[in-house]
Give the backbone structure.
Amino acid sequence: MSQYFDPRYASLEAYVPGEQPRDRAYIKLNTNESPYPPAPSVCKALEGGVIEDLRLYSDPACRRLKEKLAAHYHVDTDQVFLTNGSDDILNFAFMAYGHLGAAFADITYGFYSVFAALHGVDATIIPLKEDFTLDYLDYLGLNKLIVIANPNAPTGIPISFNRIEQIVKANPEGVVVVDEAYVDFGAFSCYSLIDKYDNLLVTRTYSKSRSMAGARLGYAFGSKKIIEDLEKLRYSTNPYNVNSMTLKLGEATIDEDDYYMENCRQIMLTRYDTMQALRELGFDVLPSNANFLFAKSPTIGGGALYAKLRENGILVRHFNKPRISDYLRITIGTKEQMETFISAIKQIHQEVDT
């Protein structure tokens, strides 16, 4: 780093995204992207004058997309927040509400700890139970910023609606952020609670179930005052943070909800088949309500298995961290991709056993 770099950030451990190599063609099961393309009508949404209008700034209020999201989810427009990916929402939440401290799990989305460090937030790290489930009792009465991924990442394990409500109810002096990036793959959303509790913020993304990871679009639901807080920060940093093409694609996506829900159903079916195949091979596979599995081989360590899969042209995610270093996070691809993945696993196990 340069001599000019602010020493406050010198020791910051930045978030490490999933690798995106270009040296060969890979089956990418490492970044939880959808294996399916956007709906055909969404792909056509940029026709007409959208490209010509790139000379103009995008709508900073994101009015049309906010209105469509509000109507789709039966909330008020001023209960919707839009950003350049849901990570932006999380960043703003730590900025806005981290002054009281924050609490989140030891095994969860890695950006939570990065944002806490970035903004100087005193973070309480709460271990998951031995079976990697979250004990909601650990989060009662903390009255600080609480961040929970539901379903959790990288485990895929959800927490029930009732327990989420208990956490929100028991922390009236702190904001509870529920990160629902993967909720469409079999978990229950809690966004209906925003009318009951003004300290709840629910974040969502177009990256997973809506096949728009490259477009960068996130949204959130919360009380009017919570949304006002976030808008103040957005307008104080980058009010044009959602570009006009992404806004247009986001609007078109809402009109094709049946298409995307069918894709989610296919992913869930493939997830089940893959889980069964791995368990038949002796893998420890956690129950998942996300578009990925978290699994451990009975014969080969996580780092070694990751490397051998990569040699075979298959990318998965390995976290070299305590408690989970033997596990791999495996994104669910198409049925054909997962069959190729299982075949590679069988071949690797045979090589290890001989």
